[in-house]
Write a structure and sequence with these properties.
Layout lengths: L2 E8 L7 H11 L3 E8 L5 H12 L5 E4 L13 E2 L1 H6 L4 E5 L2 E5 L2 H12 L2 H4 L5 E5 L3 H12 L3 E6 L2 H11 L6 E3 L12 E4 L25 E4 L8 H8 L4 E2 L2 H16 L5 H8 L8
Parallel strand pairs: 1-2, 1-3, 4-6, 7-8, 7-10, 8-9, 10-11, 11-12
Antiparallel strand pairs: 3-5, 5-6
Helix pairs in contact: 1-9, 1-10, 4-6, 4-9
The structure holds NADP nicotinamide-adenine-dinucleotide phosphate.
Length: 285
C-alpha cells in the first residue's frame, strides 16, 4: 500500500488547520501517510525549489500552497492546469506524466460549498447578480468560479486598478467595478454578496466590509470567505436581519478535499473532515 506524504507551503503557518483536515481524510479513507508544514520565507526561492525537487523525486506525493506563495511558485512548476492558468495562482502541486503540475482547487471548492449553502430559491434565478467585495488572491478564484457558473459578477474594491486587472484577466469583456466605499446604489438587485477581504478576521472581529447603514435587499445571501471566527460580524449582522449567511469553513474543507482527491484518488467524507476542525479556535489556513 502506498504511503502518501503530503504537506503545505506557506509563511507563516503556525495555526494551520490543514494537517488536522488532511490526516483525518487519510484515516477516513483507510490510507497511510502524513501532512507536514513547510514554512518557507517569501524571499527563500531556493527553499521553494528544493521542496519541489522532493515532489519530482516522489519523496513528497503532493503539496498545498498558501499565502504568500500561490503566485511565487508558478515559475517552478512545469505546467498549470487551465483553471490555475486562468486564475493566475495555484494551491495544489503534484507530479504526473513526468511533469510537475500546478492546479487550483479554491475555485471549485468555493463553488461546491456555495451550492450547498444557497437555497433553491436563490438558485432558481436565471439572471443571478453577485457582488464580490475585494480584489486580492482569493477574489481571483471566487470571480473565476462565479463567472464560469453564469453569474453576473460585479467587483467592489478599494483599488480600482487591481479590480480592473482581475476582471480583464478572468472575463474577456470587462466586469462592472465599483468603489467599496459607494455600495448603497449597487446592492438593490443583488442575490448574493461574497466577502473576500480580511475585514472581520480574528483578531479584528468587530469589523465588517459593509457599512452599518447599508440597506440590503430582503433576499440577498451573504458568503464570507473568512472562517476565523466561525461567525463574523458580517454574518452575524446578516443573520440578525433574517438573511441567509455563512462563513468560509465549508470552502476550506472542499478545497482541501479536492486536492486530496487529486493526490490519492480517494474521495474523503466532507462531514468527517469538517467535524475534525469545527471546534478549533484559531486558524489562518
Ligand atoms: P489578499 O490577497 O490580501 O486580498 C484581500 C483583498 O481585500 C484585497 O483586495 C485588499 O485590498 C482588500 N482589503 C484589505 N483590507 C481592506 C479594507 N480595509 N477595505 C477594503 N478592502 C480591503 O487576501 P486573500 O488571500 O484574498 O484572503 C482574504 C480573506 O479570505 C482572508 O480572511 C482569508 O483567510 C480568507 N480566505 C478563505 C479561504 C477559505 O477557504 N475559506 C480561502 C482563501 C482566503 P488591498 O490590495 O487594497 O489591500
Amino acid at each position: 500500500m502506498p504511503i502518501f506524504h503530503l504537506g503545505l507551503i506557506g509563511y507563516p503557518l503556525e495555526h494551520s488547520l490543514s494537517p488536522k483536515i488532511h490526516t483525518t481524510a487519510l484515516s477516513a479513507c483507510g490510507l497511510k501517510g502524513d501532512y507536514s508544514l513547510f514554512s518557507i520565507h517569501p524571499d527563500d526561492k531556493q527553499g521553494l525549489k528544493d521542496l519541489l525537487t522532493r515532489v519530482r523525486s516522489g519523496d513528497i506525493t503532493g503539496l498545498n500552497v498558501t499565502i504568500p506563495h500561490k503566485q511565487n511558485v508558478i515559475p517552478f512548476v512545469d505546467d498549470l492546469t487551465p483553471t490555475a492558468k486562468s486564475i493566475g495562482a495555484l494551491n495544489t502541486i503534484y507530479f504526473r506524466h513526468n511533469k510537475l503540475i500546478g492546479d487550483n482547487t479554491d475555485a471549485a471548492g468555493f463553488l461546491a460549498d456555495l451550492k450547498k449553502f444557497l437555497t433553491t430559491e436563490t438558485r432558481r434565478h436565471g439572471d443571478a447578480h453577485v457582488l464580490v467585495l475585494g480584489a486580492g488572491g482569493s477574489a481571483r478564484a471566487v470571480v473565476y468560479a462565479l463567472f464560469n457558473d453564469g453569474w453576473n459578477v460585479k467587483i467592489a474594491a478599494r483599488k480600482i486598478e487591481q479590480a480592473q486587472q482581475l476582471a480583464a484577466s478572468i472575463a474577456s469583456d470587462q466586469l462592472p467595478i465599483t468603489k467599496i466605499e459607494n455600495l448603497q446604489s449597487q446592492v438593490s438587485n443583488l442575490h448574493l454578496i461574497v466577502n473576500t477581504t480580511p475585514l472581520g478576521m480574528s483578531p479584528n472581529v468587530n469589523q465588517s466590509p459593509l457599512p452599518e447603514n447599508l440597506s440590503l435587499p430582503r433576499h440577498v445571501s451573504i458568503y464570507d470567505l473568512i472562517y476565523n471566527p466561525r461567525e463574523t460580524k458580517l454574518v452575524r449582522d446578516a443573520r440578525s436581519l433574517g438573511l441567509n449567511a455563512t462563513t468560509g469553513l465549508g470552502m476550506l474543507i472542499e478545497q482541501a478535499a479536492l486536492s486530496f482527491e487529486i493526490w490519492t484518488g480517494h474521495r474523503p467524507s466532507r462531514e468527517v473532515m469538517r467535524a475534525s476542525v469545527e471546534q478549533s479556535p484559531v486558524s489562518n489556513h
